[in-house]
Each structure stands twice: as structure tokens, then as C-alpha cells.
Specification:
Layout lengths: L19 H6 L4 H17 L8 H26 L7 H18 L4 H26 L3 H24 L3 E2 L2 H4 L6 H5 L1 E2 L1 H9 L20 E2 H19 L1 H11 L1 H6 L4 H27 L2 E2 L6 H11 L11 H20 L6 H25 L3
Antiparallel strand pairs: 1-4, 2-3
Helix pairs in contact: 2-15, 3-10, 3-11, 3-13, 3-14, 3-15, 4-5, 4-6, 4-13, 5-6, 5-13, 10-11, 10-13, 11-13, 14-15, 14-16
Length: about 375
């Protein structure tokens, strides 16, 4: 019997072949990776001896980065789904204030205050999404209205009940509560005690804490940030629902034609942003032991900037949770690094504006590469 040679089908000339370099260039994480490398290189050169990279310094910028990271996850998935939520910052202040009012003013158990606040914030997120879907109004307008409404209630409720805009005493109220440590506790404290005893990390040399490690554990804020990033990345890249998110933001009408429940996807993403904001608020309240009406100001814009730096397109349908996490890491490192490098802290806002502009220009170029536009 004659042997038949296997032939490799010739590439279709109608399909434009893309080089490995171009494939790497359109990865949404590219901007975040380049920015992270640049930022760490800069501060390793100019702030290495300032304590920025000792145990306490690493904890400082990791904690700040985790704050950005938590809200960036929700903002990222919502933006990929083609929508915006400008009420994130106000939701942070509102959620924290509700926990304080329920637990301190009304005397509820802290666990009940936390759970009811989460339920309330999820309902508000669902309401935002429902209004956007049913009215056809831009989510920018709907959530801008929610921003003012929530901020107004955040100021009004504590003034009505306590005649002040800051409510303290939460830490004392939360003592012995089973749910509070999930947001305000620390993990691996025994490991850090051992690291301090062996001299791997610094310890206090005097005072009541003499001999204790300077860093005595990993705050739950960081744990929540890592958990949400992992959850968001797996959801987006490993599940059918993740494909629905991309489809809803890429071309909602075409997605509906192939059976994607676009309305449900978008409402759930609004609920996720509210959930992330409430996680942030709860961790913040447990850390400071108080809630203030001004908490969360401008956080919505910082979350969006982190997502844009991470490679998400403002038009939806494209982005990466890992890229958004890198954008949040850049924020935290720069915000704390300017202090360690003895640079005027107000320049952080200048940095935000510059890097946002550069990220939008890069993302616009990538979008044109993908779509073939000129």
C-alpha cells in the first residue's frame, strides 16, 4: 500500500497573520507590567535606603495598594461589561457609616450590622443596574446621581442621629464579635513573631512592645484584595460567565442574538462593584474604629484610573483583572514612595493625571490595532 504524506494546510490568505510581538503588544496587562517595572526601578534607585523596602515599608505600600485593588476588581469587570460606576467612593462612605450607625448608635451586634449593610449595598448596586437597563440612560449619569444621593445620606443620617459626621467606638463594640476579624483581623501572626525572634524582620527596641515584631501579621485588607483578584481573574478567563462579560461590553446587541443574558450580566457587575466598595469600607471601619462622612472621596476615579492603566478599554469588551491589580499596585507604591523619596506628596495627583493620559493613548492605539481602524 502506498504511503500518503500528511500535508499541512496552507494559511488562509484572507486572515491577517499577527507576529508574536504584536500579540504581546495587545495583551491588556502590558501597560500595567511596564508601569510596575518602571515604578519599582525608580524607587529602588532613589528610595532604597529610606526604609521603603524593609518590612514596615513593604506593609505600608502593600496596604495602600490593597485598598485600590479591592475597588479596582469590581470597576474592571464592570468596565469590561461596558458600564461605569461613579458611586463607588460614595458607597464606601455610606457603607461605613451604616455599619457605625447600626452597631454603635442602634446597638446591633457588629456581625448583623455588617451583613445588613452588605445586603443594602448589593440592593443599591442592583438598583443602579436596573435603572441603566430599563431607561437606557448612560451608566455615567445614573451612577453620578447615585454618587450625590449616597453622599448626602452619608452626611444626613449621622447628623440626624448623633449631631456629628464622625461616629467612633466601633472597635470597642466589635470586641468578641465573630465576623469583625474577617475584615479587621490579621493572619500569620505566629509566623511573624518567629521572624522577629530570629532577626529576619525588625522588632521594637523599647517601650511596652519591646521585642515584638514591627510587622505582626498580614492585615485582612490585603487578604481580601488577593482573594478578589484571584476570583475576578478566574471568573473572567476560566468561566462561561466571563465570556458573557466580554460579549456584553463588546457588542451587547450581537451578544443578545446569541443568547447572552446581557441585562443580568450588567446588573450583577453593578452589584459586584457595590460589594467591593463595601468590603473596602468594612475593612477601613474596623481598622480605624470609626466611620466618617468624608470617607471614599475620589475613590471612584482612582479605581477607574487603575483599570485603565491595567489595559481596559473605555469602550468596554476588553481588559484584565490582573492588569487592574497591577495598576492598583502602581498607585500604592507611588503614593507611599513619594514620601520615602522626600518628594512633595501633592505631586501624586500630577502623576495620576499623566499616567491616565498615557494609558488612554496606549489603549486607543491597541484598540485600533485590534479593530483595524486608522
Amino acid at each position: 500500500m502506498a504511503e500518503t504524506a500528511e500535508t499541512t494546510p496552507a494559511p488562509d490568505e484572507r486572515v491577517k497573520q499577527m507576529s508574536a510581538f504584536r500579540r504581546a503588544l495587545i495583551r491588556p496587562e502590558l501597560g500595567g507590567i511596564c508601569g510596575t517595572i518602571a515604578v519599582f526601578t525608580f524607587f529602588l534607585l532613589f528610595a532604597f535606603d529610606s526604609g521603603m523596602f524593609n518590612s514596615q515599608g513593604i506593609l505600608n505600600w502593600s496596604t495602600v495598594s490593597a485598598q485600590f485593588m479591592i475597588i479596582a476588581v469590581g470597576a474592571c469587570l464592570l468596565m469590561i461589561a461596558g458600564e461605569f460606576d461613579l458611586s463607588v467612593g460614595s458607597m464606601i462612605g455610606f457603607s461605613g457609616m451604616m455599619i457605625a450607625i447600626f452597631s454603635v448608635t442602634l446597638g446591633w451586634p457588629v456581625w448583623a450590622a455588617i451583613l445588613v449593610t452588605f445586603a443594602l449595598s448589593l440592593a443599591i448596586g442592583a438598583l443602579n443596574g436596573f435603572i441603566v437597563i430599563r431607561t437606557g440612560l448612560p451608566s455615567f449619569i445614573v451612577t453620578l446621581a447615585a454618587l450625590f444621593i449616597l453622599r448626602g445620606f452619608t452626611i444626613y443620617f449621622p447628623q440626624l442621629l448623633e449631631n456629628k459626621t464622625i461616629i467612633g467606638g466601633i472597635r470597642e463594640t466589635a470586641e468578641g464579635d465573630w465576623l469583625a476579624p474577617v475584615f479587621g483581623g490579621k493572619i500569620l501572626t505566629g509566623l511573624f513573631d518567629w521572624l522577629g525572634q530570629t532577626g529576619v524582620i525588625a522588632t521594637f527596641e523599647r517601650g511596652t512592645r519591646q521585642g515584638d515584631p514591627v510587622v505582626d501579621g498580614i492585615p485582612m485588607l490585603i487578604v481580601w484584595a488577593i482573594a478578589l483578584v484571584i476570583f475576578g481573574h478566574v471568573l473572567l478567563t476560566r468561566t462561561k460567565f466571563g465570556n458573557w462579560i466580554f460579549a456584553a461590553g463588546g457588542d451587547a446587541q450581537a451578544a443578545r442574538y446569541v443568547g447572552v443574558p446581557v441585562n443580568r450580566v450588567k446588573i450583577l457587575m453593578f452589584m459586584l462593584t457595590a460589594f467591593c466598595a463595601t468590603v473596602f469600607a468594612t475593612c477601613q471601619v474596623m481598622e480605624f474604629g470609626s466611620a466618617g462622612a468624608d470617607r471614599g472621596l475620589l475613590k471612584e476615579f482612582e479605581a477607574i484610573i487603575a483599570v485603565v492603566i491595567g489595559g481596559a478599554l473605555l469602550t468596554g469588551g476588553y481588559g484584565s483583572v490582573l492588569g487592574a491589580a497591577l495598576g492598583a499596585l502602581i498607585f500604592g507604591v507611588v503614593q507611599q514612595g513619594l514620601f520615602f523619596a522626600s518628594v512633595e506628596s501633592s505631586l501624586f495627583r500630577v502623576f495620576l493625571g499623566v499616567i491616565l493620559l498615557l494609558a488612554v493613548i496606549l489603549n486607543t492605539y491597541i484598540r485600533r490595532m485590534i479593530t483595524g481602524e486608522r
